[in-house]
């Protein structure tokens, strides 16, 4: 999971979502009213899906697991909890069918004392403040209660394909960095661009982000990547500063 940048809505779409929210408020609001309104909102959903696809990591990956294709518009706070957020743009994320229908469903754990929700919202906060990814193992460790709940709800460690995929992607990232350096040294700029595009569009974008974060602690970068690859990482960011951004 990586931080995401949510773009503003076009005025016409924002007005349409507000109108539909007002209709739910007038009708109840109830879970049934929210779900019925969502089922019939074909055009707004198509527009929302397009915007979510543009802000999704990699090749339209799920905003939770980062592995599968994002196919569903997930309501971060489920309709069952707050029907008035059915058409709230700040409440929409792109999820794969497994994360949406098999893992999360209507689960939305909250702190029993404060009432604060305990899932990481990647469009509002940096997941790295709540989760740490270990590159060699491909597993996450929680740093906070939010991190713990997020790992549990989305099965980030319980799904073997995710753990293995992150571990394998670390190997891929190292290979791409090496290939980018080699192509550059040989003056093969077109080939270099291909490697850059591959890095930008990787599954498990959290792996690349974790690798990039190693630059903040050079001794750790040297230990995890080796001095040569750590230097290549530094060169990549110097020449392509967009990799510094989420």
UniProtKB/TrEMBL annotation:
Coiled coil: none annotated. Gene3D superfamilies: 1.10.30.50. InterPro entries: HNH, HNH_nuc. It comes from the Bacteria. Residues 47-101 form the HNH nuclease domain. This is HNH nuclease domain-containing protein. It comes from Kitasatospora arboriphila.
């Amino acid at each position: 999971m990586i931080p995401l940048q949510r773009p503003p809505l076009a005025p016409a779409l924002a007005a349409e979502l507000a109108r539909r929210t007002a209709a739910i408020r007038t009708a109840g609001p109830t879970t049934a009213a929210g779900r019925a309104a969502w089922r019939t909102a074909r055009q707004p959903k198509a527009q929302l899906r397009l915007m979510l696809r543009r802000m999704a990591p990699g090749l339209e990956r799920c905003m939770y697991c980062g592995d599968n294709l994002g196919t569903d518009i997930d309501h971060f706070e489920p309709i069952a909890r707050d029907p008035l957020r059915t058409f709230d743009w700040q409440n929409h994320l792109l999820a794969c069918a497994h994360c949406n229908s098999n893992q999360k469903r209507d689960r939305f754990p909250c702190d029993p004392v404060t009432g604060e929700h305990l899932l990481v919202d990647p469009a509002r906060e940096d997941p790295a403040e709540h989760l740490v990814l270990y590159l060699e193992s491909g597993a996450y460790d929680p740093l906070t209660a939010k991190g713990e709940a997020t790992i549990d709800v989305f099965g980030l460690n319980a799904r073997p394909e995710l753990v293995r995929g992150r571990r394998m992607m670390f190997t891929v990232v190292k290979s791409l960095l090496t290939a980018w350096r080699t192509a550059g040294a040989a003056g093969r700029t077109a080939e270099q661009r291909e490697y850059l595009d591959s890095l930008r569009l990787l599954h498990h974008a959290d792996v690349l982000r974790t690798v990039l974060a190693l630059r903040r602690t050079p001794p750790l970068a040297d230990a995890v990547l080796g001095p040569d690859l750590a230097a290549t990482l530094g060169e990549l960011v110097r020449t392509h500063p967009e990799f510094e951004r989420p």
